Amino acid sequence: MRNPLQLTLDLFESLVPAPRPAPAPAPVVAAPVAPSVAAAPAEPLDAVLAPATFHHPNANRRAQLGHTFVAYEFKRARRKTIGFVVGVEGLTVSAPRWVPLAEVDAAVQAKSAWILAKLDGARQRHDRIEAARIQWKDGAVFPFLGEPVIVVLDSRGAGGATLNTDAQALPGVPRLTLHVALPQHANAEQIRDAVQAWLMRQAKRLFTERLDHYAPRLGVQWRKLVLSNAGTRWGTAHSDGTIRLNWRLVHFRLPVIDYVVAHELSHLRVMDHSPRFWDTVATVVPDYARLRGQLRDEPLPAW
What we know:
The chain has helices at 4-15, 45-48, 101-110, 112-131, 188-218, 254-266, 275-282, 288-297, and strands at 53-55, 61-65, 68-76, 83-87, 90-95, 141-144, 147-153, 161-165, 176-180, 224-228, 235-237, 242-246. It is α/β, with parallel strands linked by helices. Strands 1, 2, 3, 4 and 5 form a five-stranded mixed beta sheet that branches. Strands 6-7-9-8 form a four-stranded mixed beta sheet, covered by helices on one side. It has a three-stranded mixed beta sheet with strand order 10-12-11, with helices on one face. A hairpin with a 2-residue loop joins β6 (141-144) and β7. It starts with a helix and ends in a 6-residue tail after the last helix.
């Protein structure tokens, strides 16, 4: 006699239907292959991205140079050839009155590589200057003779500004501080004006010293120094012995300042930029070409 557990298992198995055999797999039918279609070529990147543009504020003509649009200022001038000038505002093209516009357009196209290189360089320089724009406040930093100076507002000062030197400054930390006699709540314009006044006093003193140093060596005599604030000129010389120098030159290192001083004094002997003029400059500043490049390439802080 089977035990009760075995009887129960036998009864359960009799109630559960036997599993059906698995159906045979359906035959695999290959799907029809569509005829191959060549993929459309990718759209050129230049067509997707917006083309670069340069726009002179006084633009009255426009040219497409490669993938770049250039809106430039066109002027008629009393000259013999077509001239190109790239400045902070953009491209200016000057042409004689008798030159037809079609010839001007062709000249712009022929000069396109030079124009684009100069415009791109000017834009990069502008961007660097804006990135270095001074925020006039306590702790602002500006360059003086090529070295960073920290502004310190000090209402206890007797007036004006005083330059202090910290000989124990850590590497990478400016060692010069300019203590300006202003309260902590002074606004940006007050701080800027105080620093500018101090810099202009230093410029007057330093430029006079350098003029007196180089004039005898060049065999010339200067009569009057005028500080300028020109946007595009570092200096000018007049035949009467008047020398104009941009006060912002004090931001640069002394060798760069010396180059500009020697340049203007040399004009008292040669009033053009002929080879004889540059030979004159080289007698006192032999490496003038390198210093001239630094003056051109090193951006001044934006005020």
